[in-house]
DNA sequence: GAGTTTGAAACT
DNA sequence: CAGTTTCAAACTC
């Protein structure tokens, strides 16, 4: 991977003429890319962290460095290109990549994640303070100046995400980042924002950060791009080995339950060293484990295959099963039941589907019941008797009865599907009926009380 | 929640 | 490369 230098000249004040070093970028993956940059050699690396000059963006200055550090996120497709910053459309969209900004004194590695659901991630609050652009891939990106240099901004609409425009040595602390909007949302949720202060780079002891990134550049679950990743519980690895999911995903730990965690900015040196060690051991350590299979095979498959011995590849111990893909020819598993025609697998799938449907039905029924009661509270006039303690009969309407019946039917279906004995089923249904009654009574009582007070 | 099982990662 | 150990997540009770 070579580093290319690009001049920014057009539309810039000549005194601001700057050199930009942009490295070719790598493909998106589960892993972050600082790993790629570390292998390039170089005496000093810095993990780039968010800009701070915009209301929703954090800028952190590392002592001893003249540069504003940023963390960048970019799209999942496209190829590396050479860029002419400020020029006409000389660039094409690029892949999520790590970037090395060679400023002459400091090399900064930029972990970059694929931005997948950018449209929905763009916070409304920031669109007024940052320039939002839409490219052919319908991804929105932001140009966020680390310091004010507004005349540059309009010329970067064609830069790929993940591009850092850094100044030549001696030109001051000015840097630009083209960042997909999703990352701004990450920033808002990340404790990176709270851990950094505008006066300097101070991270309180124990503070952990975790920028959420899609796993493998793919969504392993329908909502994986929006759901916070599970916190790790590492106790011995210092979160600096691939045992740690956060580390393996190229993320900082944040809100984890780990002990003696070194996977944070506070232990940047150790972290980068660990990344290098992992890469020395396995250059593909941070590459996606789930990739495209050979022709004729499933689109997605485990890059190395699993080695399961006892789980039949039908438990989450199995990386293939966990990724919701079938085992392939490269797996070395024993007694595998994770293949297309496997009856065990089909049964598991049916059970999982049924469970999901049950949960949805039950949730819907309960929501409807609550809605009916709530609706009644607003449109009925409770009948209160003077001290008689009777509840308003108007609450037992046709709608409430129907909603109650739905709850009971759902409970019946659930017990039937799970093969519960009849006696237990009846008991569960009765209990559900009791819950419904309690809700009705509670609502009616509240309405009565409200009426008395009014 | 504690203890067990599991398989990937790390180590020898 | 193979065997063993370490580790943290998944799972069971």
UniProtKB/TrEMBL annotation:
Keywords: Nucleus
Keyword Cell inner membrane: no
GO cellular component: nucleus
Places the protein is found: Nucleus
Chain ranges of the CRC domain: 228-341
Chief location category: nucleus
GO biological process terms on file: regulation of DNA-templated transcription
A Pfam family per the record: TCR
Annotated family: Belongs to the lin-54 family.
Name of the protein: Lin-54 DREAM MuvB core complex component
Organism per entry: Gadus morhua (Atlantic cod)
């Amino acid at each position: 991977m070579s580093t290319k230098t690009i001049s920014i000249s057009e539309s810039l004040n000549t005194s601001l003429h700057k050199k930009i070093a942009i490295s070719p970028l790598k493909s998106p993956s589960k892993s972050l890319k600082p790993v790629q940059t570390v292998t390039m050699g170089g005496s000093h690396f810095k993990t780039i962290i968010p800009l701070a000059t915009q209301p929703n963006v954090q800028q952190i200055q590392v002592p001893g460095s003249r540069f504003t550090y940023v963390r960048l996120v970019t799209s999942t497709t496209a190829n590396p290109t050479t860029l002419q910053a400020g020029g006409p459309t000389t660039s094409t969209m690029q892949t999520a990549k790590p970037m090395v900004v060679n400023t002459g004194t400091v090399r900064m590695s930029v972990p970059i994640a694929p931005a997948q659901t950018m449209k929905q991630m763009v916070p409304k609050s920031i669109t007024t303070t940052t320039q939002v652009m839409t490219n052919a891939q319908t991804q929105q990106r932001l140009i966020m100046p680390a310091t004010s240099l507004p005349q540059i901004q309009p010329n970067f609409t064609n830069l790929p995400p993940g591009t850092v425009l850094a100044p030549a040595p001696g030109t001051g602390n000015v840097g630009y980042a083209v960042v997909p909007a999703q990352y701004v949302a990450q920033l808002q949720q990340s404790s990176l924002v709270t851990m950094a202060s505008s006066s300097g780079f101070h991270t309180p002891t124990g503070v952990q950060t975790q920028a959420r990134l899609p796993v493998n550049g793919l969504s392993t679950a329908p909502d994986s791009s929006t759901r916070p990743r599970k916190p790790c519980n590492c106790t011995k690895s210092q979160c600096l080995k691939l045992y740690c999911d956060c580390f393996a995903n190229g993320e900082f730990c944040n809100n984890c339950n780990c002990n003696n965690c070194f996977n944070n900015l506070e232990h940047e040196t150790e972290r980068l060293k660990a990344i290098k060690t992992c890469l020395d051991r396995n250059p593909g350590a941070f590459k996606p484990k789930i990739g495209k299979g050979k022709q004729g095979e499933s689109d997605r498959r485990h890059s190395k295959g699993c080695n399961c011995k006892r789980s039949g590849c039908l438990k989450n111990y199995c990386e293939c099963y966990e990724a919701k893909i079938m085992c392939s020819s490269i797996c070395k598993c024993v007694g595998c039941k994770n293949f297309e025609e496997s009856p065990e697998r089909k049964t598991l799938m049916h059970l999982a589907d049924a469970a999901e449907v049950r949960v949805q039905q039950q949730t819907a029924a309960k929501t409807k019941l609550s809605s009916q009661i709530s609706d009644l509270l607003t449109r009925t006039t409770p009948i209160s008797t003077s001290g008689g303690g009777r509840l308003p009969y108007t609450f037992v309407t046709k709608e409430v009865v129907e909603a109650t019946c739905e709850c009971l039917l759902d409970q019946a279906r659930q017990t039937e599907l799970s093969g519960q004995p009849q006696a237990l089923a009846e008991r569960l249904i009765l209990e559900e009926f009791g819950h419904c009654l309690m809700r009705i009574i509670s609502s009616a009582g509240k309405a009565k009380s409200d009426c008395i007070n009014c």
